[in-house]
Amino acid sequence: MKTVLVVDDELDIAEAVKSILEDEGYNVVVCANGREALQRLDGVRPDLAIVDVMMPVMNGFETIRAIRRHPDFSQLPVLIMSAIDPSVRPKEYDWAGFLKKPFSLKDLLEHVHTLAPTEPEGVA
Question: Would you say 5 and 36 are in contact if contact means Cβ atoms under 8 Å apart?
Fold first, then answer.
């Protein structure tokens, strides 16, 4: 089962994403900010991180930069989500996709299935 790390300070959005992705067969870990996400990486090996940009404590760009510094997660696919389209992409903020808030269920699932495809039934 693929694991998705969802980092968003808006609990309603994080819980909705969690519910949707669990219905699709993903294991989902929710964190309210970047600092919490970095702490959780010690025990979780996500296949994809979905990171909000605007968060307290540690914003999404700071979170991505910190994730990239960790040798085990330097290549982790990151899907960022924000109401504002980020136009700058320095190397340390590299991400694999952008999901504009508010987003549709279809857009969320297309991005997630592309970046962390689930295994077909019966395949281990």
Answer: no
